[in-house]
Amino acid sequence: MKRIIANGQLLEHGQLVKRDVLIEDGKVSKIASEITRDGVDEILDAKGNFVSAGLIDVHVHYRQPGQEQKETIKTGSLAAAHGGFTTVCAMPNVTPAPDSVNNMEALIKLNQTDGVIHIKQYATITTNRGGDELVDFKALKDAGAFAFSNDGNGIQKSSTMYEAMQQAAELDMAIVEHVQDDDLTYGGVLNGGAATRLGMKEMPWVSETAQVARDVILAEATGVHYHVCHASSKHTVNVIRAAKQAGIHVTAEVSPHHLLLSDANIKEDNALYKMNPPLRGEDDRQALINGLLDGTIDMIATDHAPHTKADKDQSISTAAFGITGSETAFSMLYTRFVKTGRFTLEQLIDWMTNKPASVFKMNNAGRLEVGQPADIAIFDLKDEHEIKESDYLSKGKNSPFTGETVYGDTVMTLVDGEIVYKK
């Protein structure tokens, strides 16, 4: 089947230019200022909107199997498509966890059957994502694991992390970690400023940064590719920067919410602002922004974490950690940073497409080029719209960005040339 995306605006050398895109057999076959319509089965009129490579998110939680009341692979992937994402990487905190070949193969099959976009699957580092019994790294790689992570749980024992890194390095696989020293969290739920205001326990920044410091030394010793999930503290940014300058193979991501919000935004006991790691100070937020701009932080990843209304409809002190992100990430970041001149559109797209693809060696994602799969997102940069809960396709409605007026609404998303979301 031949399709043309006509009258779109593509980014070329930092400028938006009018281009048509021809799609044949699921791949991009031509990009030109005008393409003949002869023999074309369908014309998709982009109406002057921005046509981009589909976004990539290396950090989502789809909850299936085991917690389908929060999210399923179907609803999570539909939400991602709604946000313009065409490739996501699903974390392993499901039940049963993908810690064995049988569990991994079953989950990959579910992803392929129920997902409307490309879903890559993390394996756990340890059995059932806890304790210190390492999984069979080679067998899980052979079964299709994307990388290894115990996300949601930091590896507490140094020797466990060291041995995991050794095995992953031998297989040229990444260790992707939620960095948290549990002994240093003190049962906290908020950063210092908000914790003091609301009379709740503090989760100090050192609980994150101390484990990053440990891990980058272990990464240097083993040569593994070590990736830091959702950096939140200026101190963590400093450690990552120093590690990169020392030649250690460390990469990092930052979530939209840590770029957009600080703990000053938490005015009252509202669990929509509860996430792990917590929102930190304004100086931390600025350090994260600067870390992206100077290359210390490599990419943006949502940490899409859907929960039920009951999970969140309680005090911050007892509610579940996490917010959704797939459906609000691009529009919020475009509005707050590109429209205001802090980032360029080219930078934002790079952090959400090309950088995750290159860091994690995804050869068939992140680029809108001839010969590449037609994984494409079309965004309306001209007209503003309100983020409404009724528009969410995720089961999770737990977002502090509901009600915001933004630009960059997703008009259409295509995966392998097929429409998987249309406004």
TrEMBL record:
Positions bound to substrate: H61, Y62, R63, N93, N276, H307, F321, G322
Catalytic residues at D303
Where does the record place the Dihydroorotase catalytic domain?
51-235
Q: Which GO terms describe its biological process?
A: 'de novo' UMP biosynthetic process; purine nucleobase catabolic process
* GO terms for MF: allantoinase activity; dihydroorotase activity; zinc ion binding
> What is its cofactor?
Zn(2+)
Any Gene Ontology CC annotation: cytoplasm
Q: Which residues form the Amidohydrolase domain?
A: 294-421
Per the UniProt entry, the Enzyme Commission number(s) are: 3.5.2.3
Annotated residues for binding of Zn(2+) 1: H59, H61, D151, D303
Instruction: From the UniProt record, list the reaction(s) this protein catalyses.
Output: (S)-dihydroorotate + H2O = N-carbamoyl-L-aspartate + H(+)
Provide this UniProt record's keywords sorted from A to Z.
Hydrolase, Metal-binding, Pyrimidine biosynthesis, Zinc
CDD domains noted in UniProt: DHOase_IIa (cd01317)
User: Its pathway?
Assistant: Pyrimidine metabolism; UMP biosynthesis via de novo pathway; (S)-dihydroorotate from bicarbonate: step 3/3
Record-linked Pfam families: Amidohydro_3, DHOase
> InterPro entries attached here?
Amidohydro_3, DHOase, DHOase/Allantoinase_Hydrolase, DHOase_cat, Dihydroorotase_CS, Metal-dep_hydrolase_composite, Metal_Hydrolase
From which domain of life does this come? Bacteria
Which of this chain's residues are annotated to bind Zn(2+) 2?
Answer: D151, H178, H230
The note on the cofactor says: Binds 2 Zn(2+) ions per subunit.
In terms of PANTHER family, this protein maps to: ALLANTOINASE
What is the protein's known function? Catalyzes the reversible cyclization of carbamoyl aspartate to dihydroorotate.
Q: Which family is it part of?
A: Belongs to the metallo-dependent hydrolases superfamily. DHOase family. Class I DHOase subfamily.
Protein name as annotated: Dihydroorotase
**Species this chain originates from:** Lentilactobacillus parabuchneri
Could you read off the lineage of the organism from its UniProt record? Bacteria, Bacillati, Bacillota, Bacilli, Lactobacillales
